[in-house]
Fold these 4 entries.
Entry 1:
Amino acid sequence: MSSEHMQIGEVAARTELSLRTIRHYEDAGLVVPSARSQGGFRLYTESDVARLMVIRRMKPLGFTLDEMRALLEATDRLDAGEELPPEEREALLERIRGFEHATRQRVEDLRTQMSRAEEFAATLARRLTSTPTV
């Protein structure tokens, strides 16, 4: 096995994703092992790990598998190293801008939820300290 390839266990440890989750993303077409060992084991590269990290970051923000796929397809196309017609390049960049905007909105929504949760926790703590003990 080449030093540039990693087996799924190492990838799982690096990405903090389970083997099952990585296989699920493979089944969904979001990541494809770059190679297979002679024994048929999945082999991944740093690029595959980076791709899984994008997916891992999108998941808690509520993006669907189709949305993840759309973003990855756009970034793959832009990163392919080939000359793109200006209108296609702009359409891909616009797709990424849409994801960036959606991400910022979801982060703001999470901040609001966190603030409300902290308020509630503080209310409960005050309640506990102000309730007389018997």
Note: The longest strand covers residues 42-44.
Entry 2:
Amino acid sequence: MITENTYFEGNVKSLGYETTDGKSTIGIINPGEYKFGTAQLEIMHVIEGELLVLLPETENWITVTAGDHFTVPANASFSVKAETQTAYLCQYR
């Protein structure tokens, strides 16, 4: 089954699916700054574009480009900034 997700007034959209490894979403982030919360561990892969990321309990933004990923623990929040449309794959584990 495929689920559709829309956040931040349509500026972040994704399609969700599930495999034997767990749930995942693949989506697009429009330019802007967004804060997300996690219910479980998330592994976020940037497929195309670039994100500036502020991870939990850190003060410095990091740059994550196509081909790279970052991990966010469960029950945390993180922020991202996108200057161009950016494609991502998020794995929930």
Note: The longest strand covers residues 12-19.
Entry 3:
Amino acid sequence: MNIAKHMEAIFLAVVAVIGATTFATAGTPLQRSAPSVAAATEAAMPVVVVSARRLSAAEKAQLPQ
């Protein structure tokens, strides 16, 4: 059996199966999982503040490579 010769039929069969499963599962309700721990705690997100000045071009040139 030459698969390349029958590729169109294989593609149409796969599309038909996928279409049938979408219609079959369309009526089932979604299962919702329990809320995650991060969402339930509502704690403030830690923030890092860097309070340093930027180096000028001359200061960068003095740094060892």
Note: The chain has a mean pLDDT of 83.
Entry 4:
Amino acid sequence: MKYIEFGIGNTWLVRTETERADGTEFEQKGIVKPIVFHSVYFRVWLGKKVFIWDSKEGLKRMNKTRSAFKLLFGITSHQ
């Protein structure tokens, strides 16, 4: 899967994070094509709590070990 994210809190204002089948991830600056649309999402990370609304999966809440602030809009893409 690829996650194209726009917003504040990441290394870059626009980035693409690619998740490989073996579970490893890497990020790149900008939008990496091709994009095969899967869903859109909004992510709000406040402290150690993360709230995500995804157009396919609905609303989710997660806890993280790291504390951060992020406000992101993203597109999920199949590779």
Note: The mean pLDDT is 96.
